[in-house]
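Changelog note: in this version the structure field was regenerated for every chain. One regenerated record is shown below for reference.
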Amino acid sequence: MVTKKDIAKYLGISRTSVSLVLNNTPGNTISTETKNKIRQAAKYLGYRNTEVSAKICYVLYERPINDPRYMVDVAVMEEAASLAGYGLLFMNVNRSSESMAKLQRSIDELEIQGYIISGDVDDRISSMFRSSSTPYIFYGLNLPEQAPFINYFTFDYAQIACSAANYLFSLGHRHIALFLGSLDYPIHQLMLEGFSRAYDDHKQALDKSLIQISNEENGYELCRRAEVLRLEYTAVVCGNTVIQFGALQYLQSKGISVPDSISLIGLDQSEFVKFSVPQLTTYHFTEEGKKRIVPMLHELIVNGIQSSPVSMITKEFKLFEGGTVALPST
């Protein structure tokens, strides 16, 4: 049987793009030319949409539909859903009244068995699902104060940041910077906590000026700012690959060699990782760990709403070596 993965391999494009087109996902930004190629290849290879009627839905909330970090997760979820006997739908939702009403209609129609909700989750969307009878799980935990009241699946962000910094320390780096997005996000607060712990582990004094924040998660500007401030560092832990890729672009534009002069390590996985030159070195949570959310949701679908919310924190992450980390220059 021909699969979406086979079509992606045949065309040399991402499995996510194939899924978005063949699932008729609304609002996707894939070009008409690419859509036509995918549909033609599906027809030529004999693809048949045999997905079962049972559906779960991945909701991306208040994030651009083409955000490379979340698109990797969509592909992982689709594979896990298929193994569990579900088809995966995708909805891109924002805070507008129209968009929220569309999501509420979807919940009320009861045609989708369960929801995975990710993105910049807030009280409004949390309340919507808490008051419904539809199984749901929030992916990541942007609302830690609501942890006792909602179903969630999240990651050990403090430990992954600590491990990334420890890896740099093990190579001999001593002046390690941290580039993060807004500290309004609990995820980033946890990364800062783990990063600081690594300095403590190695009995190194942390110069707080090496912690640089960008609400826009703009690594290019963070690197430029570090240069203006004349910060001295030999390596950077980047909160995500968007920041890491931007930092790489700035350093390369200035003729600064990565990793010979400055090492960069990111804390997630996206298409930037392998498309970058050199490829980005990252610590990232494993696909196997992420897939555990689907059996967790399946249990809620089968057994119904639990009297107490369910939760899971996965600690499964690994290193992708890439080419942006090296020993510090002497």
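Spot check on this record: The radius of gyration is 21 Å. The first helix runs from residue 4 to 11.
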